[in-house]
Amino acid sequence: MKNVIIPLLLLVSGINPLLAQESQGKSLNLFVGTTSGGGYDVYARVLAHHWGRYLPGRPPVVVKNMPGAGGLTLANYIYNQALRDGSEIATMQSGVIFEKLYHTLSPNGANARFEAQKFGWIGSALRSTYVTITWHGSAVKTLEDARHTDAVLGASTTSSDNFLLAVLGNKLLGTKFRIVHGYQGSNATDLAIERGEINGAAGKDWTTLTTSRPDWLRDRKVNIIVQMGMQKHPAIPDVPSALELAANDEDRAMMELVFAKFNLSRPFLGPPNMTTKVLQDLRDSFVSVLKDEEFLQEARKTGMEIDPVFGDEAEKLVNRLLQTPEVQAQKMRDLLKP
Predict the structure, then answer these.
(1) Which among 101, 130, 135, 136 has a CA at the least distance from the CA of 115?
(2) Which of 30, 99, 263, 296 could form a disulfide with 112 if both were Cys (CB 3.0 to 4.6 A apart)?
(3) Can you give the pLDDT at residue 217?
(4) Which CATH superfamily does the domain covering 2-126+266-335 fall into?
(5) SS3 248
(6) pLDDT greater than 70 at residue 5
(7) Residues β-bridged to residue 268
(8) What single-letter DSSP state applies at residue 242?
(9) CATH 3.80.10.10 matches 130-260
(10) For 102, what's the count of Cα atoms within 13 Å in the CB-facing half-sphere?
């Protein structure tokens, strides 16, 4: 009798009994393309607490960090070496996905040994808006100030959003930012701002800023100069949007090409050539966990913002961006050169 009841219960609960048997005892490895403790890692670990409940066989989800080459190490691994059975998936910096378009991590994108369109697109937990900030003691307190007065902004590398968005501001918004790079991540940049070594930073994810430095906002320690993204963030409606300030249609098109990747700011993906069933299970479970009240409660406690893009939409966005005509793509690359 027990051998009959268990499959029936699995069918009633919506779990395929064959898949459940195959998944029994297996774990799902969720790789993160950064070191532990940062935004990508936090999102992965909170999701991992809840994701397995919605997967066939309810496997444990184990987070493993695989940093390197700005995320290319993990992207290349998932594309070329990861198991295709749904047991190995990843989250990584969104710019990595579009390396063959942006060429920010390697000459001509040559180190990207993958075709991003062919990844198994699960979705993104967040669409991001980035802001440029200056410390409260800076002479530059508004975007108009930044057009007339120098301000020194910090960045990690010349491929980072801190650097690229400051360059974009100088070229398309008329700002006079001087960019100093070489800081070892956002924490080092933030400490340099507090010590007065630099005046501020561009490319600060608004969600990360509100969770990692809430006192900066609460105590008005920073000025929010401009926001950059495909949409304005509802929490800062009075901060000007770069898209709204574009001088002409060509400038706006360049901005949109740079900002579009921010709509996949916490991407989750699997290797190519997974079966339709495996990919659909991952997509369906991703939708379910992002709507799960226990997950959302933990996300709120952690300060995570959830504004998801689900599988089909994520796949369409990747395909659209990577079909950008080469002439337009080269204009964008030239724009982002210091």
Answers:
(1) 101
(2) 99
(3) 95
(4) Bordetella uptake gene, domain 1 (3.40.190.150)
(5) coil
(6) no
(7) 123
(8) H
(9) no
(10) 24
Greatest alpha-carbon span in the chain: 81
Angle at 298 between CA 201 and CA 14, to 5 degrees: 125
Three-state SS letters, 74-102:
HHHHHHHCCCCCCCEEEECCHHHHCHHHH
Looking at the chain, list the stretches that DSSP marks H as alpha helix, in order from N- to C-terminal side: 2-12, 17-23, 39-51, 72-80, 94-97, 99-102, 143-146, 161-168, 186-195, 206-212, 214-218, 242-245, 249-259, 276-290, 293-302, 311-322, 326-335
How does pLDDT run across 241-261, given as a tens digit for each residue? 999 999 999 999 999 999 999
Can you read off the two tokens belonging to residue 265?
């700011």
Q: In the numeric block, which tokens belong to residue 60?
A: 């444990």
| pLDDT at residue 25, as a whole number | 52
Measured distance CA(282)–CA(108) in Å, rounded: 32
> Stretch 97-121: mean pLDDT, rounded?
95
Packing angle, helices 293-302 and 39-51, rounded to 10: 160
Q: What is the pTM of this model?
A: 0.83
